[in-house]
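Q: What residues go here?
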């Protein structure tokens, strides 16, 4: 977008008055807020406690997005392999074990893995002399971030992180209602004996499905009812991901008529192993676009550990956060009060200032990776008026935090970046943000 007219002191004063009035109802008497508006060169247009660090919620994903793009490059792809020590034999047998080797690809799906098994089958593989092995050594650290709220356990947005990721580390439950009073049909995907399901769902006249994780990993109890002749889908986190992925792979091999002689285990692949199948993810820019459009926490956490591994050879949360901080400092982006323990912004102790986010957004490659206000992604239902079609932004919501950060094309001054965050709002922060961005668009 071509630069617009320069801002005069009178116009900057008008911006301040207009935004103060638009945001005031959502602030109340509180002081936990941070607002910044900059032009795309980084010049400040509006600053109200812009250096104050507050809880960001999901707008924190902008930091890992920009740091990952800068570190890996927009065209980077993750690789997931099926490998063996000696490659394919001529008699349809793989000597030794078959390894599933992960690189932390957040987008890897069971359908991708099935295509890998199909590739082996088409190559004539009929037996594996050893067992299935899973190499998840590309990342380390606990599957679940210890700083996350335990009350969120079992929610699809609270999925584990692992060097081998499968279906966002969730299992899909499909519930099909039949005739009233009959038992609903339940299908769990992917198919694996590593998932244990008890109870059942009845067919009724309204939806009251409950899928409750049990104390045993990957055990779920079903109860409640689904409406007749309907289909409902639910995604629930699974755990012990490397072993779970190994079980899924073993099940797929059996379904394809490929016999295995050994057990399933988790261990690194030999350095001299031979790739039999190489799955390449979509380019990183597409993965980050998905993360920002849908506010996918799992993608953010996988990318944080991948960043730590690439930048510091520390593929865990602490390494990823340290790499983010280094990235910000090297680009002269202010980090006062910055504190992160994850990539997604789920943790209650995460803090970032509006100025940090606004300066991150001066990187133009983020612009097209964000959803359009009022049209798609997490911004689809925002009721912009003058800014409709002229704003791209990332939302952020938790019980005590609401945020919006992105870009808006103004009427006379070109594109500006903004970051608006309020904690513990007594009013309607989203409504205030829409009013503020509409006002900017009209400037």
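A:
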């Amino acid at each position: 977008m071509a630069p617009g007219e320069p801002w005069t002191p009178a116009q900057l004063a008008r911006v301040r008055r207009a935004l103060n009035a638009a945001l005031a109802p959502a602030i109340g008497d509180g002081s936990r807020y941070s607002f910044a508006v900059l032009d795309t060169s980084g010049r400040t247009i509006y600053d109200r406690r812009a250096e104050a660090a507050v809880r960001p919620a999901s707008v924190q994903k902008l930091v890992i997005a920009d740091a990952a793009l800068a570190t890996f490059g927009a065209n980077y792809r993750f690789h997931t392999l099926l490998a063996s020590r000696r490659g394919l034999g001529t008699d349809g047998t793989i000597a030794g074990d078959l390894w599933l080797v992960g690189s932390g690809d957040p987008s890897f799906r069971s359908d991708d893995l099935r295509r890998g098994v199909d590739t082996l089958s088409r190559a004539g593989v009929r037996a594996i002399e050893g067992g299935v092995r899973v190499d998840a050594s590309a990342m380390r650290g606990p599957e679940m971030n210890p700083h996350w709220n335990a009350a969120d356990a079992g929610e699809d947005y609270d999925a584990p992180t692992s060097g081998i990721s499968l279906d966002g580390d969730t299992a899909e439950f499909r519930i099909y209602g039949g005739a009233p009073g009959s038992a609903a049909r339940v299908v769990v995907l992917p198919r694996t004996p590593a998932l244990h399901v008890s109870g059942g769902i009845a067919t009724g006249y309204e939806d009251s499905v409950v899928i409750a994780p049990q104390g045993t990993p990957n055990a779920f109890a079903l109860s409640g009812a689904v409406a007749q002749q309907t289909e409902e889908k639910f995604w629930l986190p699974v755990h012990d991901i490397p072993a779970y992925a190994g079980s899924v792979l073993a099940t797929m091999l059996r379904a394809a008529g490929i016999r295995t002689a050994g057990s399933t285990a988790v261990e690194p692949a030999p350095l001299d192993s031979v790739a039999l199948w190489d799955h390449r993810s979509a380019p990183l820019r597409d993965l980050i676009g998905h993360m920002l459009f849908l506010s996918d926490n799992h993608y953010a956490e996988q990318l944080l550990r991948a960043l730590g591994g690439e930048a510091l050879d520390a593929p865990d949360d602490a390494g990823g956060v340290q790499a983010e901080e280094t990235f910000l400092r090297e680009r002269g982006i202010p980090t006062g009060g910055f504190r992160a323990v994850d990539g997604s912004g789920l943790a209650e102790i995460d803090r970032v200032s509006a100025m940090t986010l606004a300066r991150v957004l001066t990187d133009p490659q983020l612009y097209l990776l964000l959803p359009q206000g009022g049209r798609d992604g997490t911004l689809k239902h925002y009721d912009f008026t003058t800014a409709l079609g002229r704003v791209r932004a990332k939302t952020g919501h938790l019980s005590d935090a609401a945020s919006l950060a992105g870009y808006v094309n103004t009427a006379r001054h070109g594109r500006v970046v903004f970051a608006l965050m309020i904690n513990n709002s007594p009013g309607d922060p989203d409504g205030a943000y829409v009013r503020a961005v509409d006002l900017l668009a009209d400037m």
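A: Context that may help when evaluating the design: Residues 303 and 359 are 21 Å apart (CA to CA). The chain has nine helices and 23 strands.
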